[in-house]
Amino acid sequence: MTPTLIDITMITGLDVTSSANPMSLNTKNQYDFRTKSIGGWSGYVAEYMGTGSVTSREHIAFLLMWLEKFLFYGSSCGATTNWQFIAEALESKRQFPLGKILLGYLYQMLNNASAKIAVGSVVGVGGPWWLLQT
């Protein structure tokens, strides 16, 4: 048995009913974030943490880190911009079906893992495996 949209709602409480089309989210990023050769997560935080009021850029940088580390669980040891379009949508308070995106990514991860197992390759640790463990 595989996870369904109802499972995503029950486990995470994320929106799966929004009529918003996730493909209508910005494909061009609002900000450029340097993520390569920055020194992992601590370097990323040091680079994008400011003082005083939180700017839109800082908020997106935080959301990007949170999405990568805790929701989509990236396989890298540092930040990427893979989920920046979601961070920007969250920051601008746009409605979109985050639960559907998460479930789609879970199925993509399972497909990649199955293909690697079939040829005897090592399966990477990145991805939302936590959804299958609940």
Word description of this protein:
The protein is mainly alpha-helical and 134 residues long. It has two domains: 54 residues, no CATH class; 69 residues, no CATH class. Helices cover 49% and strands 0% of the residues. Helix 1 packs across helix 5 and helix 3 crosses helix 4. It starts with a helix and ends with a helix.
What's the topology here?
Blueprint: H1 5-12, H2 40-48, H3 56-71, H4 84-91, H5 98-118, H6 130-133
Helix pairs in contact: 1-5, 3-4
A few lines on this structure:
The protein has six helices and no strands. It is an all-alpha fold and 134 residues long. The protein has two domains: 54 residues, no CATH class; 69 residues, no CATH class.
